[in-house]
Amino acid sequence: MATTAAAVATRPSPTPPDSHGSASQPSKRPKGRKPADPANTSKAIEDTIAQLERNKEGEREQEQEIDREVRRATRDMSKDLSKIQDPLARIDAVQKKYAELYANMRRTEREHIAAKKRADQLQKEKDASRSELSKTSTVKDKLEKLCRELQKDNKKLKEDNKRLLETETRMRDELHVRLEGMVSDIQEVIDQKEHPDRIPANMEQDELFRHKFKSFIDQYELRELHMQSLLRQKQLEIEFQTARYEQQRRAQEQEVTKSRGLANQVSTFSQTETELRSQLNIYVEKFKQRCPRRPNA
C-alpha cells in the first residue's frame, strides 16, 4: 500500500487546459542540458520509496517493542498488586510506583536536555573548528605558493649574481690584457727616453698616449665601482629574499602545526559527538520505556 501511494503521489498531474481550451505547450528544454534518464529517475524514486518503507518498518518494530515492554510492566504490576489484600495499601503502592516512575521520567528528561545541549555545543565547536581548519588550509596554500615564488626569485638572483661574477671576471681578464699592452707601450717609451737618438720627431703621439692612458684608468675605476655596487645590491637582495623565505617557512611550519592540532580537535569532537548521540538515544529509549502507555484492548 505504501508503494502504491508513493507511486500515485509521484505521478505528474495532467496539464490544465488554457483559456482557449487547449493544453498548454511544454516549456522548451534549455540548450546544452542533457535530459534526465527515465530509468535513473525511476530507480531513484524506487530507492526513496524503499528507504521510507524501511524507516517506517523500523519505527513499527520500535513501537511494538515498547508495547511489549508496557504489557510486561503492566503484568508485573498487576501481579504485585494481587498480593496486596488491603485496597488502601494497593492505592499506596500504585501511588508509590507512579511517584517513582514520574521521578525517573523527570530525571531522564533532564539528562536528555543536558545531553542535547552538550551535543549542540559540540556541534557548534566542531563547525567552528572545521571553519578554522578551512581558513588554516587556505593560509597554508597561500604560504606554499609564496614559498615557491620566493624560491624562484632566490634562484633567479643567484643566477644573476653568477652572471655578474662571470662578466666581472671577463672584464678583468680583458683589462689585464690591455694593461699588459699598455705596460709594453710604456716600456717602449722609457726605452726611447733612455736612447734619445730613437725619440721620434712627433711628440704629439706621446701626449695623445698619456691622455688615452689616463682616460682608460678613469674608466676602469668607474667600472670597478659600478661592478662593486651591482654586486653589493645583488648580495643584499639575496640576503633579503633568504630572510623573507626563512620567515615564510617558519610561518608555514606554524600553520601546519596549527592545522594538525585543529584536525585532531575536529576528530575528537566527532568522536565525542558520536558518543553523546549514542547516549542520547539510550536516554530516549529509557524515557519511552519509563513512560508506559495503556496497552491496546
UniProtKB/TrEMBL annotation:
<comment type="similarity">
    <text>Belongs to the taxilin family.</text>
</comment>
<feature type="region of interest" description="Disordered">
    <location>
        <begin position="110"/>
        <end position="138"/>
    </location>
</feature>
<dbReference type="InterPro" id="IPR026183">
    <property type="entry name" value="Taxilin_fam"/>
</dbReference>
<dbReference type="GO" id="GO:0019905">
    <property type="term" value="F:syntaxin binding"/>
</dbReference>
<protein>
    <submittedName>
        <fullName>Uncharacterized protein</fullName>
    </submittedName>
</protein>
<feature type="compositionally biased region" description="Basic and acidic residues">
    <location>
        <begin position="53"/>
        <end position="82"/>
    </location>
</feature>
<feature type="region of interest" description="Disordered">
    <location>
        <begin position="1"/>
        <end position="82"/>
    </location>
</feature>
<dbReference type="Pfam" id="PF09728">
    <property type="entry name" value="Taxilin"/>
</dbReference>
